[in-house]
């Protein structure tokens, strides 16, 4: 269904392309259809016939969509922000719940209440009505049992009671499901509103604030904290409903048992604080578990983003051990949580028994004449069963309130964090300059020192300005200040409106910016990732004085000093200040140091990595884009574009069809079969004993009714009570045993499946990571593993328990009324028909819902990474709308899932109501043949089984749905892996000792449907030879490296290194004995020391020596923690050049006989490049060096040069001979204007 959304009147609206939007008919149907969800039956029917697709589902009504929910909430939030700044007192709700007396920051509570108060009041009304009706069932049952005791043949009154019981139970069901529907949808609206606010805040967050939050932490606010708020909202009514139900139960129990009920209350008062302590401990353990989980996922995320480095350096086992170490801590916490769950399961199962035992025991001792009748016993048992859930839930909800308070505080801290100040940059000014700084100083955050100091510059419109300087001099910060991304300390900044385009694929970024037709373009080293030919073409045709952008203002940060004569103005940065400024001729004539610098490099053509920044214009919006032929920008096609297409098409798979038993068997195998059988035995035993307790009470009360001499009864009373106690005690032991073995088995499964998945992922070939989103793998290690750790064994246990409960109930009712078999058969048939009918649709909706969550997280993560780009383009509204779109899709699945659950619950509980009705009817029809104890036993079991029937099907569906997570966790084990890391044949110690590399007719291709990336390549290096490898973009230079490291396996030919065919040894034996400095400087969060020496093999002295060789020693010594300086996520607190130097230092520590340089100095200034090249020549003088270069000056001093084109070798000789031959290499040198 094609549709789009627009914004009108300040609100986003969904616009259907077809005009036939399938909004939910829920609001327009009759009351009966609304209460029974019959309007949803059509979708259930479709899902039964075929797998549901997105177009089959009902859309959200306008009031439920984020397009109306988010703006309404934002309006209230703005009021709260204004209210907090005036210092008003906290609201009554906040004073009551959180004991706030005044605001130090805005609170989410008040705007949430103002936005959703009518929905919350409606939900509370439905809840209290359903709770009251829940207590009417036991009272009608009491009347029936009393009737059976006193007037066993009175059928007419009995029929009335049976019908009344049916309608009361049915009414309670309908109201409860209506409550659940409204409760779930209100909760998700609250989450949607908060998520929308978090997203908008992320687009305005100041850099100083942004540095306090990693991307993962902000995503966590959306996924975890907002989810916690939603979960509390779902259970919020239990804060008053649970005490209300407890008081109602105590009131009715008082009517039955008098003062003795206080004994039961005393047990409850004893259990509740213990439950609260357990809940608090569980909360503490959950925090610990989440902390370890965050550490594990953070490390995994960095590993996956830097997987190429891990594979090239053979670091996978080391990092695998780090992950497994964190995982063991996480599993230890899960073990402790599992043992606490044993207590929770004990109290949940045994609360009715413990309360009844205490109450009945005191009842007998309060008055010797007290006698337990069937009416008293089974009415009390039914009330005790009602007590079970509120008693169990109340401490958990109280704990959840405390936990949500923490989440609210985190959310409020984030939402109140400092925003970018739009007034830092004045865009409304008169003058003919495009950018102006007047005495301006800037810093990145409030605690930091000024990075840019006393800037004074005026840049005329339409000029080309070059910004040059050494690594860390402030060039990129200069552009950030223009964009308003830094905090201004003083001075004035003026500029025209600005946009930014950035990304790793520079030509795409350039094209995107140029098509947008801006007035101002900010270019941060734009040409490093392309070869000389393409770089020259882009400068001449786009950036330079005669290029397409010649009438635009262009500020170019560059290390390519040969471009400077063609610029209108040059700004030289030094330690955050403008040290020199003027035209090229002015600086050459007046400043000797500048002239000396440029003279050294006049023959060098340097091009650097680009992030392109541009400024939008309101005029001529489309003309420029139309005037630039697309073929000019995309003329030089890179094979990586084909891999991008694969990546863009790689969407998360959504499973279809029923659950595969092989998946469950795989889980049970990891669970360990001995724990499986012990669990089943324990649950069989505890359910049998639970039935035994009630049968014992039934027999006891039946005997009581027949005894005339109470002296004899009193003598047997203690014996009867003792047996009842013993049965309960043994049941409690079996509950503990069941919980223990379940915990052991689930931990075994968690360990085994995580280890298998991690090992499988690390053995995948690099191409898998290049063609599949990393988010999909992270999803397996978070969402799917959460199912393995927490959910799946719980669903299996609940399903098993419900199965045994239903079977036990039917057997009890059949023993009381054998005629009930006539009803059981058709009810059973209807039950399984509804189950089969529903489960296909529900399973599919849940699977689609699971897949729809990834785009929400992915879009948010991308927004965080590209925030400055979005702001500079002024596309915030477009991205907010996109966020609403992906959230809307997720909500559509959530809504349909909620309604499908209600559809099922109403029908199953209707069957349960019929079961209650027929259980009552048949005992009435039995008349004198059935005693009152049997009547009470039969009806109390029937009342209790309604929830079990519903849970049985729901948990069966949960098992089917969540089995997909098990399948997805296991799927990597079936994927094609790279070759073994270690093989039986291993190279000798010290290999390679000469460094001779030989390619023999080598062929390679990235995919079978693509052409050969290398085609018949044959050459041989000499020992310790320095070989340069050049070629146009897409010639196969990087592919050659990939083949050498066997990142890409060959499809023909051989590679021989010092006499060993590299295909005959393990990957780690190969990669561990080679060395490479890659083009992308990948660092991991942690200390500088751990980045230099991840395996911990080198001393501090060796580290300092390596840093000194890379000209980083002074910088590191200036840091407070020196080698222990914390590197932030992705190395963001270092400049790109500094990151590259750290990577160089890392390689200097890892000396081997063969070194590959892949544009290793692309992101450093000229002086640093000289230093690096000299260091490499000196430190690796006795090594074979293969240098892949776009910039020809870096390989002009090579002993030989290999020229590639379209995967073939065109030339291979000394630079001198190649220049004499007047071939391809000679042409490239001429184009680069390099002289020898």
From TrEMBL:
Subcellular localization: Vacuole membrane
Annotated ABC transmembrane type-1 domain residues: 123-403, 677-951
UniProt cross-references to Gene3D superfamilies, sorted A to Z: ABC transporter type 1, transmembrane domain (1.20.1560.10), P-loop containing nucleotide triphosphate hydrolases (3.40.50.300)
Keywords from the named record: ATP-binding, Membrane, Nucleotide-binding, Repeat, Transmembrane, Transmembrane helix, Transport, Vacuole
InterPro entries named among the record's database cross-references: AAA+_ATPase (IPR003593), ABC1_TM_dom (IPR011527), ABC1_TM_sf (IPR036640), ABC_transporter-like_ATP-bd (IPR003439), ABC_transporter-like_CS (IPR017871), ABC_transporter_C-like (IPR050173), P-loop_NTPase (IPR027417)
CDD domains per record: ABC_6TM_MRP1_2_3_6_D1_like (cd18595), ABC_6TM_MRP1_2_3_6_D2_like (cd18603), ABCC_MRP_domain2 (cd03244)
Chief location of this protein within or outside the cell: membrane
Ranges that cross the membrane: 119-138, 158-175, 232-254, 260-280, 343-364, 721-742, 806-834, 910-930
Ranges where the ABC transporter domain occurs: 435-600, 997-1231
UniProt membrane topology term: Multi-pass membrane protein
Gene Ontology cellular component terms for the protein in this record: lytic vacuole; vacuolar membrane
GO MF annotation list: ABC-type transporter activity; ATP binding; ATP hydrolysis activity
Family per similarity comment: Belongs to the ABC transporter superfamily. ABCC family. Conjugate transporter (TC 3.A.1.208) subfamily.
PANTHER family in UniProt: ATP-BINDING CASSETTE SUB-FAMILY C (PTHR24223), MULTIDRUG RESISTANCE-ASSOCIATED PROTEIN 1-LIKE (PTHR24223:SF166)
The protein's name in its UniProt record: Multidrug resistance-associated protein 1-like
């Amino acid at each position: 269904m094609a549709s789009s959304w627009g914004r009108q009147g300040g609100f986003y609206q969904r616009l259907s392309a077809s005009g036939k939007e399938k909004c939910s008919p829920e609001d327009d149907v009759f009351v009966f259809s609304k209460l029974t969800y019959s309007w949803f039956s059509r979708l259930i029917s479709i899902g039964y016939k075929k797998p549901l697709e997105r177009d089959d589902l009902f859309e959200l009504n306008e009031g439920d969509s984020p397009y109306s929910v988010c703006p309404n909430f934002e309006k209230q939030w703005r009021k709260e922000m204004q209210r907090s700044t005036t210092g008003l007192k906290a609201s009554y709700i906040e004073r009551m719940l959180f004991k706030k007396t005044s605001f130090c920051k805005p609170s989410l509570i008040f705007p949430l209440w103002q936005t959703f108060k009518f929905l919350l009041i409606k939900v509370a009304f439905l809840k209290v009505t359903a709770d009251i009706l829940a207590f009417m069932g036991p009272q009608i049952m009491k009347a029936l049992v009393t009737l059976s005791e006193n007037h066993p043949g009175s059928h007419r009154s009995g029929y009335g009671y049976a019908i009344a019981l049916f309608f009361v139970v049915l009414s309670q069901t309908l109201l409860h499901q209506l409550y659940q529907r409204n409760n779930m949808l209100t909760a998700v609206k609250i989450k949607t509103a908060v998520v929308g606010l978090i997203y908008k805040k992320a687009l305005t967050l100041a850099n100083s604030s942004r540095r306090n939050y990693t991307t993962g932490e902000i995503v966590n606010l959306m996924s975890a904290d907002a989810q916690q708020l939603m979960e509390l909202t779902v259970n919020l009514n239990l804060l008053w409903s649970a005490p209300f139900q407890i008081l109602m139960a105590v009131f009715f129990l008082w009517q039955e048992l008098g003062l003795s009920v206080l004994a039961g209350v005393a047990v409850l008062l004893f259990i509740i604080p213990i439950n609260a302590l357990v809940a608090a401990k569980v909360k503490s353990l959950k925090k610990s578990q989440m902390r370890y989980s965050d550490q594990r996922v953070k490390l995994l995320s960095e590993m996956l983003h830097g997987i190429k480095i891990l594979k090239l350096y053979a670091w996978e086992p080391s990092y695998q051990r780090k992950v497994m170490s964190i995982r063991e801590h996480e599993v230890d916490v899960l073990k402790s949580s599992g043992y606490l769950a044993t207590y929770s399961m004990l109290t949940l199962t045994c609360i009715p028994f413990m309360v009844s035992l205490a109450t009945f025991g005191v009842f007998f001792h309060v008055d010797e004449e007290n006698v337990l009748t069937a009416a008293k016993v089974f009415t009390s048992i039914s009330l005790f069963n009602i007590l079970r859930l509120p008693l169990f839930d109340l401490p958990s909800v109280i704990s959840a309130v405390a936990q949500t308070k923490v989440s609210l505080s985190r959310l409020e801290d984030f939402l109140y964090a400092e925003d970018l100040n739009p007034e830092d940059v004045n865009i409304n000014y008169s003058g003919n300059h495009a950018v102006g700084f007047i005495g301006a100083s800037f810093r990145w955050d409030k605690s930091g020192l000024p990075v840019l100091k006393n800037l004074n510059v005026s840049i005329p419109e339409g000029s080309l300005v070059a910004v040059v300087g050494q690594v860390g001099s402030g060039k990129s910060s200069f552009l950030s200040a223009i964009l308003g991304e830094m905090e201004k300390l003083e001075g004035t900044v003026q500029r025209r409106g600005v946009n930014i385009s950035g990304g790793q694929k520079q030509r795409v970024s350039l094209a995107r910016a140029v098509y947008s037709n801006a007035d101002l373009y900010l270019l941060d080293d734009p040409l490093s990732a392309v070869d000389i030919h393409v770089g020259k073409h882009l400068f001449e045709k786009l950036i330079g004085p005669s290029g397409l952008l010649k009438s635009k203002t262009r500020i170019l940060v560059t290390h390519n000093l040969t471009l400077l004569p063609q610029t209108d103005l040059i700004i030289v940065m030094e330690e955050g200040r403008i040290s020199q400024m003027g035209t090229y001729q002015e600086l050459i004539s007046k400043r000797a140091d500048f002239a000396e610098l440029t003279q050294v490099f006049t023959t060098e053509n340097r091009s650097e990595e680009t992030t392109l920044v541009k400024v939008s214009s309101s005029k001529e919006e489309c003309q420029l884009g139309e005037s630039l032929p697309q073929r000019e920008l995309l003329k030089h096609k890179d094979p990586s574009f084909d891999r991008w297409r694969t990546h863009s098409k790689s969407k998360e798979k959504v499973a279809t069809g029923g659950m595969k038993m092989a998946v469950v068997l795989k889980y049970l195998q990891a669970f360990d079969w001995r724990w499986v059988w012990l669990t089943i035995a324990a649950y069989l035993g505890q359910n049998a004993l639970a039935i035994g307790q009630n049968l014992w009470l039934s027999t006891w009360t039946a005997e009581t009714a027949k005894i005339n001499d109470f002296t004899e009864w009193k003598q047997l009373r203690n014996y009867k009570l003792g047996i009842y106690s013993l049965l309960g005690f043994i049941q409690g032991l079996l509950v503990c045993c069941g919980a223990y073995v379940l915990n052991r088995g689930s931990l075994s499964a968690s360990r085994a499946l995580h280890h298998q998945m991690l090992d499988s992922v690390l053995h995948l070939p690099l191409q898998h990571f290049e063609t599949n989103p990393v988010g999909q793998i992270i999803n397996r290690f978070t969402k799917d593993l959460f199912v393995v750790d927490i959910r799946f064994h719980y669903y299996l246990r609940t399903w098993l328990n419900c199965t045994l409960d239903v079977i036990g109930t039917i057997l009890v009712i059949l023993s009381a009324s054998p005629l009930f078999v006539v009803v059981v058969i058709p009810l059973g048939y209807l039950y399984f028909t509804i189950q089969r009918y529903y489960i296909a649709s529900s399973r599919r909706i849940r699977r689609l819902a699971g897949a729809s969550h990834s785009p929400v997280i992915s879009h948010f993560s991308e927004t965080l990474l590209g925030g400055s780009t979005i702001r500079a383009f002024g596309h915030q509204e477009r991205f907010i709308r996109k966020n609403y779109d992906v959230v809307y899709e997720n909500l559509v699945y959530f809504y349909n899932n909620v309604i499908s659950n209600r559809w099922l619950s109403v029908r199953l509980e209707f069957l349960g109501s019929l079961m209650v009705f027929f259980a009552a009817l048949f005992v009435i029809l039995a008349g004198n043949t059935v005693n009152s104890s049997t009547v009470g036993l039969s009806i109390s079991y029937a009342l209790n089984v309604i929830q079990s029937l519903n849970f049985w099907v729901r948990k069966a569906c949960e098992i089917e749905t969540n089995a997909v997570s098990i399948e997805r966790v296991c799927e990597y084990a079936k994927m094609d892996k790279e070759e073994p890391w270690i093989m039986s044949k291993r190279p000798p110690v010290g290999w390679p000792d000469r460094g001779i590399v030989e390619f023999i007719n080598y062929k390679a291709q990235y995919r079978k449907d693509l052409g050969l990336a290398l085609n018949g390549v044959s050459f041989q290096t000499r020992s310790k030879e320095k070989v340069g490898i050049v070629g146009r973009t897409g010639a196969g230079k990087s592919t050659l490296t990939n083949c050498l490291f066997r990142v890409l396996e060959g499809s023909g030919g051989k590679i021989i290194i010092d006499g060993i065919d590299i295909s005959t040894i393990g990957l780690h034996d190969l990669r561990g004995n080679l060395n490479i400095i890659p083009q992308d400087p990948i660092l991991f969060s942690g200390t500088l020391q751990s980045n230099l020496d991840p395996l911990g093999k080198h001393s501090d002295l060796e580290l300092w020596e390596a840093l000194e060789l890379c000209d980083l020693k002074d910088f590191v010594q200036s840091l407070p923690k020196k080698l222990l300086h914390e590197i932030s996520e992705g190395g963001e607190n270092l400049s790109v050049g500094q990151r590259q130097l750290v990577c160089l230092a890392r390689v200097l520590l890892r000396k081997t006989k063969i070194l590959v340089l892949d544009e290793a100095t692309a992101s450093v200034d000229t002086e640093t490049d000289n230093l690096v090249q000299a260091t490499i020549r000196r430190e690796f003088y006795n090594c074979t060096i293969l240098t892949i270069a776009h910039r020809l000056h870096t390989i002009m001093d090579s002993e030989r040069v290999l020229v590639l084109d379209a995967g073939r070798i065109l030339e291979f000789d000394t630079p001198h001979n190649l220049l004499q031959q007047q071939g391809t290499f000679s042409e490239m040198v001429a184009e680069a204007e390099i002289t020898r």
